[in-house]
Specification:
This protein has helices spanning 42-49, 72-78, 95-103, 108-116, 121-138, 154-166, 186-201, 213-219, 237-242, 244-251, and strands at residues 4-13, 16-26, 31-35, 57-62, 65-66, 80-82, 174-178, 205-209, 222-227, 230-235. With 253 residues, the chain is an alpha/beta fold.
Length: 253
Amino acid sequence: MALLEVDSLTKHFAAITAVDDATFEVRDGEILGLAGPNGAGKTVTFNCITGQLQPDAGTVTFRGEDITTYPPDATARAGIGRTFQEVRVYGDLTVRENLQFAAQDKGIGRMVASIVSGTAATEVEAGLAEQADGMLETVELDHLADEPASSLSYGQKKILSFAAALLTHPEPDLIMLDEPMAGVNPTMINRLAEFVRTFRERGKTFLLVEHNMRLMTDLCDRMVVLDAGTPIASGPPEEIQENERVVEAYFGP
Ligand SMILES: Nc1ncnc2c1ncn2[C@@H]1O[C@H](COP(=O)(O)OP(=O)(O)OP(=O)(O)O)[C@@H](O)[C@H]1O
Ligand SMILES: [Mg+2]
């Protein structure tokens, strides 16, 4: 059984079919690249998986659990962390607070349980601070911990979002990244690629959308290419790049 199974997923917007009968899987421990030209349906696919959008047809199964109708907070609790194509950080909070917020248990049921079981709030806060600081060190933003997130460069904000996704509560198994390297300078791109590898070695699975083909080839074990909402090819990056349908989708007939 694959970690994530997307089966016959379809999403329409009025006359547009953004995702059209898409079937693919993400295997435990892999870095899977989801590629395709602008408007191919990559972001809509992400949003249908993590519950920002409801698909019109098809199913999404995560670790054998049908999560198709789950809203975003439930997909996060099921074990999926993600970033968004447009960078999302809380600018007024510090870098550390952004990560503490990400690591927070947002399930009210569990909060009540921790109060009943006598876990002191300060203890919970100390735990969050520790988690946040550990992550900041790993992603090399610890020197900026007390700065407001709004003061970070674009690339640093992208890395902060990446770190926040990894700290989704409870610990996520699958991390979905929607163009994490777009608009980021080459030094930061390499750094982010290195972090993806580090966390894969620690057991995380990645679903990655990127337009930078060289980077996808470097990082991904497999790729799936979408065209007009439908997967047209899947396989190792080297094969994908020579696939006729893929070349046609990108460069026209
Ligand atoms: N909320 C929406 N309402 C109407 N149409 C939408 C909406 N969101 C996406 N679309 C359309 O669905 C199609 C797929 O969009 P999507 O954002 O998934 O593409 P993408 O592959 O992520 O592209 P890019 O590489 O440019 O980010 C596009 O035609 C887009 O215009
Ligand atoms: Mg997109």
